[in-house]
Amino acid sequence: MANYNLENSKDKLKVFTDARFGMFIHWGLYSIPARGEWVRSNERITADDYEKFFYEFNPVNYNPKEWAKLAKEAGMKYVVMTTKHHDGFCLFDSKYTDYKATNTLAKRDLIKEYVEAFREEGLAVGFYYSLLDWHHEDFPAYGDRHHPMRDNENFKENKGNFNRYIEYFHNQVEELLTNYGKIDIIWFDFSYDNMTGEKWGASKLIKRVRELQPHIIINNRLGGNLKKSIPDDYAGDFTTPEQIIPPEALVNEKGALIPWEACITLNDHWGYCSQDKNYKSSEEIIRALVECVSKNGNLILNVGPNAKGEIPEESINILKEVGHWLKQNGHSIYGCTKSILDKPEWGRYTQKDKYLYAHIFQRGVGPVNLRGLSGKIKRARLLCDGSEISIETPWNAEDFKKDAFLNFKSASLPDKKDTVILLELK
Ligand code: H79
Questions:
Q1: Does the beta carbon of 129 lie inside 6 Å of ligand 1?
Q2: Helices (DSSP H) in 189-312: which residue ranges?
Q3: How far is the CA of 103 from the centre of ligand 1 (A)?
Q4: Residue 7 pLDDT > 70
């Protein structure tokens, strides 16, 4: 029985890495000014001036069941929502603060409804929790480059007792992992400069988190280094490249693959930003997801609902298009990982055991080259409809005898976003 926990932790990680595609939700008081979740810091808004959003907050159209249906329709398998962002406002009912949704016009625990709605749709459920807290009196302001009051003369003297803040935040994490049933993921954000690891009481916290939720997956932003062959116990289970997809699969010192999840926004903000219409296309999102999987990573894609509790129309449309593609091509994403083959010229490979998926983003003139696969393919099928694609070695390809070639009858690809060919290997 000694290794039971290890096996267990491998299994729960496999559920996470098989899922591949999740929804991130950034929602809070900052949806009212609608200039992104960093608005208080970026614009040096005082606590008093920010307070008005607390009294105004009234998300009359908050219906997490609709959000959950959308996530499911988009092909997402898990979700992570802000329970508290850097502004310190809690969407959940916490007995350790009055700065919470229950005391706004919403008058209820918005996290409770969120958990129930997404569970109902069969998604794994996660909590985002901000280590930074611009509202708590014991969170240091002066000299902290991430605090809105960093260069305000009135805050030069930090009278706060940081240990009290640590106790507050540990207590809240305990509440979150006690009051809402089984929670699958906890997403801390973020360590910086010397504010890392034990500065957050990380070892103690992680021990408690794993006691309360033995199956939970923890991200890496309490600090610590997952690349070390024996990482710190608070280094978490996966790494979190933000607004970037790593150039290649991530490995530790021993060369073993490290689970990772790229977190990416649909426009250029996490929190709702009414002016920001710079949305990525569904094609870009589909290709980003494929790229992540081709490098052994997940993609968690963000939506920023507005003050009324509505996900922007543009986001809904993109997610539905991605979902349409996934319905036809999900076999090439879920449970798949990095291929043993190098990245091809025309797109990407993903792989699941003997099934190799060729994601063709662009093709040139003539048949599509499958480097090194001559004689190794049992059958090739268009994934979206199962139709046969013939494999050939052209009569004049004597210089490429080790390669196979996919022969499309038509010059154009059936799916411009990403045409997927299933290649069953012998
Ligand atoms: O919750 C989302 C972001 O608010 C949070 N992480 C994601 C998931 C995050 N944003 N930025 N950071 C973490 C790192 C800090 C970046 C900063 Fe800045 C650079 C802070 C100050 C300079 C961003 C850019 C905020 C102001 C300018």
A1: no
A2: 202-212, 282-294
A3: 27
A4: no
Report d(CA 390, CA 377) in Å as an integer: 11
Q: In the chain, which segments carry CATH 3.20.20.80?
A: 4-335
Location of each CATH 2.60.40.1180 domain in the chain: 339-425
Asked if residue 356 has its Cβ within 6 Å of ligand 1, the reply is: no
CB of 310 shorter than 6 A to ligand 1: no
pLDDT reported for residue 100 = 98
Query: Which is nearest to 97 in space by CA: 180, 30, 171?
Result: 171
Distance 255 CA to ligand 1 centre (A): 30
Half-sphere exposure of 235 (CA within 13 A, CB side): 16
- pLDDT tens-place string over residues 120-157: 999 999 999 999 999 999 998 888 899 998 888 877 77
- Quick check: CB of 405 below 6 Å from ligand 1? no
**CATH label, 4-335, candidates 3.40.190.10, 3.20.20.80, 3.40.30.10, 3.40.50.2000:** 3.20.20.80
How far apart (Å, rounded) are the C-alpha atoms in residues 26 and 85?
8
How do beta strands 78-84 and 185-189 pair?
Answer: unpaired
pLDDT at 141: 85
Phi (first) and psi of residue 171, to 5 degrees: -60, -40
What is the Å distance from ligand 1's center to 41 Cα?
Answer: 10
Give the SS3 label for residue 222.
coil
Instruction: State if residue 195 touches ligand 1 by the CB under 6 angstroms criterion.
Output: no
166 C-alpha vs ligand 1 centroid, how far in Å?
Answer: 21
Residue 150 CB less than 6 A away from ligand 1: no
Query: In percent, how much of the chain has pLDDT > 90?
Result: 87
**339-425 sits in which CATH class?**
mainly beta
Model pLDDT, residue 9: 61
Q: Which of 166-175, 232-241, 409-418 has the lowest mean pLDDT?
A: 409-418
- Rounded distance between C-alpha atoms, residue 377 and residue 381, angstroms: 11
Q: Is 263 in the pocket of ligand 1 (CB under 6 A)?
A: yes
pLDDT at 4 over 60: no
How many angstroms does the Cα of residue 88 sit away from the middle of ligand 1?
15
- Please write down the long-range contacts of 358-366, taking CB distance under 8 Å and 24 or more positions apart: 358/406, 358/420, 358/421, 358/423, 359/287, 359/290, 359/294, 359/332, 359/418, 359/419, 359/420, 360/413, 360/418, 360/419, 360/420, 360/421, 361/287, 361/418, 363/408, 363/413, 366/394, 366/405
